[in-house]
Structures are given as structure tokens and as C-alpha cells.
Amino acid sequence: MSHDVNPLVILVASILTNNILLVYFLGMCSFVAVSKKIETAAGLGAAVIFVLTATTPINWLLNHYFLEDNALAWLVGPHLASKVHLGIFALVFFIAVIAGFVQIVELVVERFSPALYYALGIFLPLITVNCAILGGSLFMVEWKFNFMQSIAYGFGAGAGWALAILVMAGLRKRMRISLVPRGLEGMGITMIVTGVMAMAFMAFNGIVPV
Amino acid sequence: MSNKHIKTIKDGFWAGNPIFVQTLGICSALAVTTKVQNALVMGLALTGVTGLSNVAISLMRNVIPHRIRLIVEMIVIAALVILFDQLLKAYYFEMSEQLSVYVGLIITNCIVLGRAEAYALQNGPFSSFLDGIGNGMGYAAVLVTVAVFRELLGSGGLWNHRIMPASYEPIQLMVLAPGAFIMLGLLYWVFRGLNPVKEEK
User: Taking an 8 Å Cβ-Cβ cutoff, which residues of chain A contact chain B?
Assistant: First the structure.
């Protein structure tokens, strides 16, 4: 994906043709662990959409105004800013923003909507170590998105991940009553089915120009 | 090295293999295995990070307050990952371009945090180091194995050299995403055959 694409194109691309899980393999651990039941898969999927949609633009602002080369020019002037390279610490800042954001969301949701808290509660802490979230921020930097694009990408990547885990949970429900070769149960068959799913998603290639 | 130490390494490598038994760190096992070279570099980087982070956390295990231990662990791991990322950028720039975001994603690779939580917090620095190295090598071995098959079938060569006969038509699918999933699934099958573990239904 390049940096001069319409945000709507990015949205469609990140859900269907450049799916963060099926093409970039991010968030596999929780994908394998939590796709056993549709309800829990839907809960985690919703949480991922929410956190990715929020943290990707937040990290974009952080990157644009503090971390990039010359980003500090608005604060300390262009001369001094050209000597500061905070970019190498991007990883620490991004992960701190994600962990902090998840913590705040947990507090707010617990305070104002206990029902939602109990529905999502156990999944929120898990999200901090879901590599799809950090991956979203890193790809946003890698592909040099602008602010609008980063919002579209954050939401699209989350929606793509949620779509993949929901489909997988549906498939695994059927798998429970089918005969899986011995030794292939669990992770093995999940991987192969995901592979077939990724192949099916390749059929979307070409519907958007990226 | 005593038998206990050798067992610590062996457990991480085989009986408790991080990818196949603990099902951790699958993301990068799929993403960087289109070429053997990439897989090896990634495996070494993870081995280094896991070994060193285990030592650091094990040394601090009696002074870290229990409630904020996750933050401390994340900071140690992040610092080490940045170190390896910068080393790679300085000495193997092309490689770091190819591995792109996946080096940074070692931070959220569950293996590193998992070993810190499960082993380094309870054990001394030396055996924690061995545990980290063993797990890292188990991870690297899986990565290289997946990569050997994917590069051989998908590009018809190994280590960037063509070794399949000229008449062999490379299977494009193997270097694409679906090939990675299917290959890992099949290797998991082989591993379970050689090392039967009770699977929860």
C-alpha cells in the first residue's frame, strides 16, 4: 500500500485484500486460542476493532509531532529538531500508548457500563499483547499514512481481524463434529483451514487498486 | 554443565517447543519464513532477546514489585528489541528492510514475555539464560524448517541459490500467505507424530 491512496480504498483493502491476519499474520496467538467459540470470538473481535481504531491515530499523532525526524521543529525550532532522533524509541512509546489506552478503556467501561465490562472484560487486558495492535501502528509508520488514512487503516485492520476470527470460529464449530486426522487436531487443522481461508480471500485481489 | 542444565535447554527445544507445544509466537513463524536466510536471522534475534531478557528479569526478580512486574518486563524486552533492531539496521540493512516490522514485533512475541513470566521470575540467572536460549533455539529451528520447505518449493532454491532442476516450476502459493499456514499446519502434524502430547478437545 502506498501513501497517496484514498482512505476509503485503504479501508476496503485492509479488510479484504490486505487482511492483517490472513496476509500479514498478525494476531495469530489469540486467533488460535480464542476462536473456539463464536461468542468469545465476537467479543475479542469487537475489542480489537475498538482499540485499533483508537490507537492507530493516537500513535500517528505521537509519531508525527514527536518521534519522526524533524518532528520536534514546532517545539524547539528546526535547528535543534534536526539533531534529535527519537524515532528509535517509537516501539516503546507505541507499546506504552497501547497499554495505557487499554487500561483507561478498562476503567471507563467498568465505571459506566458494567454490562459491557463483563462482556469484554477478560479480553481487554489480552489485547495489549495482541501483535495486531502494535503491528497496525508499525505498518502505519512504514507506509507513511496521513492522519485520515491512519484512522481508516486502524478501523479496517481491526474489522478485517474480527472478520477472520468470526469466520474461523464458525468453521471450528463445524470441525468439532467432523473427523480430523489424529495428531492434526487443535493447532494443525486450524492452520490448514486458515490457509484455505487465506486462499479464498486472495480472490478479492484486484477489487481495489492497491 | 550439569544434566539439569542440559535438560533445561532440551525442554525448550523439543518437549516444550514454544511454537508447537506452547503455541506461542506463531505470527513471525509465518511471516519471515519465505527465505531460509530471513528465518535464521529472525530466529537468532529472538534467541538473543529471550536469553538476555530472561537474565535481566531473573536478576531483578526479588526487587520487582509483583503488581507492576508486567510493565518492568515490557520495558526490559522493548529495550533489548530496540538494541537488536538497531544492530540489524547498522550491519544488515537489506535484511532489516526485508524483515520490516516483524523485528519490532518481537516485543509482542508471546515467547519472550511468556518465558519471563513462567521461568525467569522463579529461577536464577544462569538457568533462566539457558531456558531462554533453549526456547529461542526451538523457535529458530521451527522457523528454519518451515523456511526450508517454503523456499525450496516456492522459489526452487535454498539460501538464494537455485537447487531444484530447471524443469521444476516453483509453486507460487508457497511464498504467499496461504502456503505459510498450510506448511506450518503440516509440520505441526509431523511434530505431533514424533512427539505425542495430549491434546485438549
Answer: 22-29, 32-33, 88-89, 91-92, 95, 99, 129-131, 133-135, 138-139, 142, 181, 183-192, 194-196, 198-199, 202
Q: Model confidence over A22-78: pLDDT tens digits?
A: 888 888 878 887 888 888 888 888 888 989 999 999 999 999 888 888 878 888 888
DSSP string covering chain B: --HHHHHHHHIIIIIT-TTTTS---HHHHHHTTTSHHHHHHHHHHHHHHHHHHHHHHHHTTTTS-GGGHHHHHHHHHHHHHHHHHHHHHHH-HHHHHHHTHHHHGGGG-HHHHHHIIIIITTS-HHHHHHHHHHHHHHHHHHHHHHHHHHHHHHHSEETTEE-S-TT----HHHHSHHHHHHHHHHHHHHHHHHS--PPP-
Strands B157-158 and B161-162, sheet pairing: antiparallel
Using 70 as the pLDDT threshold, list the residues of chain B that sit under it. 1, 197-201
ipTM: 0.82
pTM: 0.85
Tens of pLDDT along B30-48?
888 888 888 999 899 999 9
Output the CA–CA distances (angstroms, integers) from residue A168 to A43, A59, B7, in the order listed. 14, 30, 37
Helix B125-155 / helix B177-194 crossing angle, nearest 10 deg: 120
When CB atoms are compared, the residue of B27, B179, B182 closest to A26 is B27
Domain positions in chain A:
7-203
Collapsing DSSP to helix, strand or coil, A186 comes out as: coil
Task: Indicate yes or no: CB of A24 within 8 angstroms of CB of B31.
Answer: yes
Q: Which residues of A touch B104 (CB under 8 A)?
A: 91, 134, 138
- Whether residue A189 and residue B185 make contact (CB cut-off 8 A), yes or no, is yes
Name the DSSP class of A155: H
